[in-house]
Amino acid sequence: MTNEHEGDICPICCDSITAVGRKEMSCCKTKLCSMCLLTHISTVVEQGKAKIECPSCTQEMNSNEILYYDELPGQVRERYQQHLAQALSEQNPNMYKLCPNCNWITIIDGKVHFKNTANVFSLRKNHRPKIVECEQCKQRWCWRCYAPMHDGQSCKEFKKDRTRVDTWAKGKRLTDNQRNAQKCPKCAIYIEKVDGCNHMQCGKCNAKFCYECGKRMRLPTYIGHDAKYSLFGCKYKLFPRNRFLRYFIRGSIFSGIVLATPIALGAVIVLVGISIPIILIVGCLGVPVFMCIECKRS
């Protein structure tokens, strides 16, 4: 019995395509290896691009086709959602946003009817909050100000009265002893960490910050927020409850580096200054002696 797809060649790897690992593009009907297509999508997503072109006809691939691609890893899908939502929100910030909890794309049309990814709970005029529930994580949040649900208060009133939210954010969860939420240092929205490390990236402004202390992370790792003995390191890395001891140790190390740097540079300059004349003298004396020895041997 002859295979229906026998003779199909993947244009990327130039190998024969098996029936199991076969993927047909909807734009040009070209048949590709599933692994080749997966590698192509992952590479483009890692480059931070929301527009992914078909590797055969260079036509832009449908975003739904990528999001619902079963073989796509969850981490790649989440990053693609972020890039896509960022691009869409720049085009129309009133229609597309990311869930502040899980970065799931939330879509709303001009008639205030939510599509696929969110459910609307309240819609009022005069800057009343538009509360939505993310289909992915079931988190309820305000569409207008990107804050947790504050039904009964306008966004302006809610921003003035942040005591209750701040108290809730600083509270600890019973499950993992982590704080409930952390405020983005750039756009001031609250972000709740589900799991993973303390390196956070805001879904609204893309600012990178530490979930534990709330400070932005801008410097390189070896001198930045993750460095235990750096002046710019996180306070929770070294004696979090003893500020004086932490400042004393980090300040002493920094002062020692500042004082030692010119001494080290001076020592290097002295060594270079001494070594150059020695090399010249040895070369001037050694070369004639070596030539004489070679002449006598010959």
From TrEMBL:
Reaction(s) catalysed (UniProt annotation): [E2 ubiquitin-conjugating enzyme]-S-ubiquitinyl-L-cysteine + [acceptor protein]-L-lysine = [E2 ubiquitin-conjugating enzyme]-L-cysteine + [acceptor protein]-N(6)-ubiquitinyl-L-lysine
InterPro entries to which the protein is assigned, alphabetical: E3_UB_ligase_RBR, IBR_dom, TRIAD_supradom, Znf_RING, Znf_RING/FYVE/PHD
Ranges that cross the membrane: 247-268, 274-293
Molecular-function GO term, any one: zinc ion binding
Gene3D superfamilies: 1.20.120.1750, Zinc/RING finger domain, C3HC4 (zinc finger)
Record keywords, A-Z: Membrane, Metal-binding, Repeat, Transferase, Transmembrane, Transmembrane helix, Ubl conjugation pathway, Zinc, Zinc-finger
Entry's EC annotation: 2.3.2.31
RING-type domain mapped to chain residues: 6-238, 10-58
Pfam name, any one: IBR_1
Keyword Mitochondrion carried by entry: no
GO biological process: protein ubiquitination
Principal EC category: transferase
Name recorded for this polypeptide: RBR-type E3 ubiquitin transferase
Species the sequence originates in: Didymodactylos carnosus
